[in-house]
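Local shape tokens:
==================
===
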Amino acid sequence: MDVHRAGFPRWRGLGGAARERGASAAARALAREIAENASVSVALARQMQWRMLGADHPMEAHKIDSRAIFTRGRSADVKEGVTSFLEKRKPRFTDRVSKDMPAFFPWWQERPYG
């Protein structure tokens, strides 16, 4: 996964290029790269975005986000990410959603249906 500034041409063109043919393919390729390289973090981010939409206060999202940052920051994938960046090589992330989600996950209680 590459590291780029927000103004980097690869990012800059995605929003405006949505009107152009092929922009969808570029956006999907970038999304695929992110998803393949950080599966646990992506899964947590998706759940936080989805579940926190109905939170009664922004502090609820902050609490979960802080726990996620703390636990992911101690993961093997973070060490691998830093090491691979310093060694200028592609990372080999090993954490998987099926076995490496943080202990606090899931943090929500399912509501009864009906």
In short: The chain has one domain: 9-100.
